[in-house]
Fold (African queen) hypothetical protein.
Amino acid sequence: MSMYPFFHEYERPRPPRRLMDEHVVHGLTPDEFLTIAMPQMNRNYCRPRRNLAAANQDTGSTIKEEKDKFQVNLDVQHFAPEEISVKTADGFLIVEAKHEKDEHGFISRSFSRRYPLPEGVLDDSVVSKLSSDGVLSITAPLKPPPKASSERVVPIVQTGPVRKQSESPEEQG
């Protein structure tokens, strides 16, 4: 009897892999690059501990939608402020950054992110701030939703004495 597993590793359905993920600026280590290029060795294989430490320190991007504001935080520490662009178009928040360096030490980094703006966000109200440690914070206030069929009593304001007296039917004749 054979000890060979029923399904060979190459025949198992594998989850899709992405060469680039949210953490574009750190690049891939040779170990990570080879795991993408080669089939999976074992499902129980653990990643090295050095990758876990880097994952805990990485902030990536976070999106918060609270009752009064919409906020996006991005880690852009590897880009200069003039290399970053933030704009709104067609109900989307678009963040782009591009860094190039040459003289035969060619380095190129770029990313583009599109976040749908929630209802109630005005394009003119979006504000971005870049902290000294390289975190880009983009915030926009949310308009409160309209109240559903609320009743309001309109006060009557008197402006002065009555100028015209109503005529009674007896006086008309």
Notes: The radius of gyration is 31 Å. Residues 16-22 have pLDDT under 50 and may be disordered.
